[in-house]
Amino acid sequence: MKTFQQAILFSGLTLALIACSTQEKKSTERIELFPLDKVKLLPGPFLKAQQTDLQYILELDADRLLAPFVIEAGLEPMKPGYGNWEGTGLNGNIGGHYLSALAMMYSATGNDSIRKRLDYAIDWLLKCQQANGNGYVGGVPSGKKIWEEISAGEIRTESFSLNGEWVPLYNIHKIFAGLRDAYVFAGNEKAFVIWKNLSDWWINTTKQLTDDQFQLMLKSEHGGMNEVFADLFSIDGDSIYLQMAKKMSHRLILNPLLNKRDSLTGLHANTQIPKVAGFLKVGMLSADTSWIKASDFFWKTVTQNRSISFGGNSVREHFNAADNFSSMLESEQGPETCNTYNMLRLTKGLWEISGFSSYLDYYERALYNHILSSQHPRGGFVYFTPIRPNHYRVYSQPHQGMWCCVGSGMENHAKYGEVIYAHRDDNIYVNLFIPSELDWSENGIQIEQATRFPFEEESLLLVKLSKPKKFDVLIRIPHWIAGDKLLVRINDQEPMEFPAENGYAVVSRTWYDGDKVTVQLPMEITTEQLPDKSSWVSFLYGPVVLHWH
Length: 549
Ligand SMILES: [Zn+2]
Description:
Distance between the termini: 44 Å
Shape: globular
CATH class of the largest domain: Mainly Alpha
CATH topology of the largest domain: Glycosyltransferase
Helix content: 40-55%
Low-confidence stretches: 1-27
Mean pLDDT: 94
Strand content: 5-15%
CATH architecture of the largest domain: Alpha/alpha barrel
Number of domains: 2
Structural class: alpha+beta
Number of helices: 18
Radius of gyration: 23 Å
Bound molecules: zinc ion
């Protein structure tokens, strides 16, 4: 699994490309996150959320989620499909997310029922693709007709429709991504074959289109279609996929970002964020620093000027004016969970290529305050997290709610282990203070992190080694730390401050089995205004936004 996951993460490229902060030290070595199966969550709110999600995923009926794909392939469905968005035009969108969620959950937990469910779904999708006969597999209603029209250059677009149907490209992006994840996270080889065939089908379908026709088509919401082609290139190596990733990159959004211009006000937020995650990958894979800087500019403007204290953005799904957040306070439709799901994906990518802890300050804030809170303790996901006073939230029911945020929600709680640890050569990053265990036994290193943070102000790292070893442990210095310095105690020595690099305390020594590292995490209460500097503030304790009921 390791090789699959590493392959997709910006394979084999020289890094040091983000020139976002010239004061901070750059490195030319590559940071690698650990695959989910190397990081087990230990008891705490995140493990509980993961287990709750696992039950929700198993509660869903794979046959009903597969029905749109089976019907579009001209086969007899095992059961009728679901209703809600699954029966009103976005048929199949949850099925794509479902593959991603199953794959991540299997990698994170090793649960055998989850793996069997994934294998079952992939087997059916292979049957559907074979029945279609041209490489296509998808649940879009009347999909074959739409794709024939597009192939002939007949393209009618609006923001939320393409040739009269509800965002077909957004919909098929989910199955592209689900197949990718089934391969990358769960090692399902059939999924890779289906993904590649589907990609070749798209290349063949669009082979007559001009660049202008591509750009016209991209006015319609299309998820991260550029990203899934960049990902396939990073694994397969055929440059035809990188070319398609570039063709599927929406210039109307990219061009202002290349010029460091924020033209986002009024735009549908979650239409744009996945495009930018794609720009970043295309930039990485084609060593084009301008696309990487454009992605970084987008990230900065969204996190600094357009996000509220818990890490979310947008009102009624659209970016509000950066100098006026009054609508956010009034609307029952505050920040959408999908937006933060996609912002975390972008954040992860930018951190991987830079190693700057500042990216993870946002990641931590959004993870604890928005993502973790977007799932009901007994299961179910929220779409909007409004900050309207005395308002409420609505949670999905397993067989009824089929919104976008149910799809991304199923993934969110499966992958809490994705950035807690990372490494650069033998040196280990500790990014988040979440109870967990890193098993890097092929390198003779295990780290167990025991903490009740944020209910206590420290985290204990227990180092387990097959033999003594010299390496660095880089511990993230959170921006919220009280006293502005991070103190670390090694075994029973006095706590001390270690040299800092890119926002990390670097503890460099020869480690012995059983060494204990206590990270002191003093928090204090702070206030934070809305980005428009109006007279509303959030109260925070460390990274946690405080609520009252
Ligand atoms: Zn959503």
